[in-house]
Amino acid sequence: MSREAENLLRQLAAEGVSAWYEASRPEELDSAVLSSLLSAGFQSVRLPPGTARGLVQLACDLLLPAFVRSGGGLGQVSVPVDPRHAEEAGALLRGARALHRTMGRRNLTVRIPMTAAGVEVLADCLAEGIGVDATSVFSTDRYAEVLDAYMEGMERALVAGRWLSRIPAVTTVPVGVFDDDVDARLERLDVPQPREGAGQALARCLYRLREKRLTQDWWRVLRAGGALPPRLLWVGAGRRSVGDLVGWHTAHALTVPELEDAARREELRGDTLLNAGREGYGVLRLLEHLGARAGESVAALETAELDRLQSDWNLRTAPAAPACGGTARSPGP
């Protein structure tokens, strides 16, 4: 990894932005490679389906010191639950429990698509002390549901006597996919694109929604119980501009090539999300006016993203392999 890339990771950390390593080829990872990535400045890891169980546990062990030092905010390892059960709350919950139990690591987060069933399971997992990466969020409406489920699950965990800092939670937003979809719609309509991208506008709206929730009285109760603000994790921003999405308690998921590309072509310019909700909502309203209707786009994106996750699962998982995919795929104990 280049010096420029490592410098960008340090700059992001100084802005309150953590860097997650997006492991597209887990078969290339081992203890030495992971240690090198973490030493360079990556603070958490996202692993795909089919990652060997031992590698998941190794990543968790290497990141555990960061998890402990940060009080649960960093040092997480995200692995997916079988997305083919995304519409079945019972099967999703059984899969999450099985994955959590099999890996046996407290800094593991189970990655769950935020369908209606997924939102329900998010609350149940948090209540049981299972960390969650709530993925495939494309709208403020869905994120509001995620925040409601987060508050409910953490409240139940607190009542059960759990220390909330030991229950990691993150929401993954595929801003790159959202950007590409809106750009394609505008191109078909033959209308000019706004200077501010759709992905950045969505990120600003979600960030504002989270900040408003964190001013409520009940959040103070959860915070006193050890809860950390739920982190927003941007995926796919490396294809556009990492610097467009910089804000306190957010994160970027990046491959090394994406990081290197970002380090070559841009400089950070400070926080771009705080107090920018009005601008974000303005851009989304403009897109509606231009004909790129958010409701249609979000519904199509949720369906397409779930199809992609299911195809990726089928491609990567092998029934006989002792992998996180094989464990998560079976909803039974």
Automatic annotation (TrEMBL):
This is Transaldolase. It comes from Streptomyces coelicoflavus. Transmembrane segments: none annotated. Gene3D superfamilies: Aldolase class I. GO terms for biological process: carbohydrate metabolic process. Keywords: Schiff base. SUPFAM superfamilies: Aldolase (SSF51569). Pfam families: TAL_FSA.
